[in-house]
Amino acid sequence: MLDRMNDIVIENAVAPPRTKRSHTVGELYKRIKDMTILYDFMPGERINEVEVSNRFGVSRAPLREALNRLAAENLLHFIPNKGYFTKKLSRQEVFDLYQLREIIELGGLRLTLKKATDEEISDLSDFWDSVMERTDELGAKELVTLDEEFHIRLIRLSGNVELVRSLNAVNERIRFVRWIDLKREQTTYSEHRSIVESLAKRDAEQSETLLSKHISRRMEEITLILRESVAQLYVR
Description:
InterPro entries: GntR_C (IPR011711), TF_FadR/GntR_C (IPR008920), Tscrpt_reg_HTH_GntR (IPR000524), WH-like_DNA-bd_sf (IPR036388), WH_DNA-bd_sf (IPR036390). By secondary structure, the protein is mainly alpha-helical. It has eleven helices and two strands.
């Protein structure tokens, strides 16, 4: 009987509430991640843990957990006995990431052409039309966010969750360079309209050509973009 009562107690037990500590780590992770992606820290700068702890009013333990997560995602660099450092702007790394982005998106596009319905493609078109109507009102960071959303929606139509997850990870690591690039020439985003039109026609060859050119068009200018990025970081 006693064993039966214990079983009942266990079955009816309520899961413990989410701890304040886990919430703090998650919030810290997100906020420091945003700061890292947008280079609120200088490239190659050592993260001052005491300063960051005081800034957010948290102890060092949850901060260290958040920093460990960012280092595991390759957004920060950890050096034993020295601490955590922001990543330096590397031309080769950015070039490699652009190539990876192209591979992911072209693979996703091929699946999208097979799986997406006409209605889904029309919804994608409507979304981008609504963005283009507001381009004069939007800043560079907002346009980058919406541009990323266009590409994520496009790849999401493939039905492959892992492709979407991979593209999000790449976007996070090239976001700052794309922000600088976008401020240089916002009119390039009319290319999305051509991509959607080719999708609607189910023209695989044209769709792939347009998307590939759209992604790789700036690769030869990455060196210049990175040079300007660093210059702007130190004068803002």
